[in-house]
Amino acid sequence: MKILMLLICLLAGDAFAQRTILAVGAHAGDAELTSGAALVRHRQLGDRVVILHMSLGERGHPGMAPAEYAAQKRAEAVRAAEVIGAEVIFAPYGDGLIPDDEEARRFVAGVIREVRPTHVITHWGESIHRDHAATHRIVNDAVLLASLQDVGLSGPPLRGLRGIYYAENWEDADGFKPYVYVDVSAAEDVWRDAVTAYEFVRGEISSFHYLEYYQALHVLRGAEARYARAVAFDIGASGKKRILEALP
Length: 248
Hints:
Elements: H1 2-12, E1 20-27, H2 30-44, E2 48-55, H3 66-84, E3 87-90, H4 102-115, E4 119-123, H5 130-146, E5 163-167, E6 180-183, H6 188-195, H7 210-225, E7 230-234
Parallel strand pairs: 1-2, 1-4, 2-3, 4-5
Antiparallel strand pairs: 5-7, 6-7
Helix pairs in contact: 2-6, 3-6, 4-5
């Protein structure tokens, strides 16, 4: 029986290999809202999930001082990660002040070398929010930096990353085109429990209906993919090039 299972695993290849998903959001709540259902699904499949928050989004509360809200957002992020089954990392940057510089790239590259992801998820590049756009650029450059030798980072270079995936976000909509669909039908209830750890998602401090928007988006993308619920991602143009001997 053991020999048979080993043969099946060898024939199946990556289908049986554990993946490590690193999701990088500009603010606590971004990654969970946009790609959280996919993260839940990967945990259900036995994969490792890590969420990196570049900032806490601590300046988003209309009636609470940033320092006080930062403590609340950190606790909410930890709770959301627990529900998902994810590890959580907090970068040392402030809301609205994520530096689009070499230091931030080196920080994220260090996280990438430590986590050693097989897949990275982050923001789409075109955004109405400066932190989202900066995070997109930082993550893309950090992936390259983490793969290079002799750049002053600890740990061995990470090469062979299977892909960078850009999450669908209402603030990052310009030019976004769904390319990869992930079936999250079995993850919807857990995802809802995770994101409602955040006060702003529950609708208590924002006029934007975050929960309802992303629930509806799951239904829409699910209909397009012939699933009950789905999450869509875009990828870089170079990743869309396929070289085949014949049409598939």
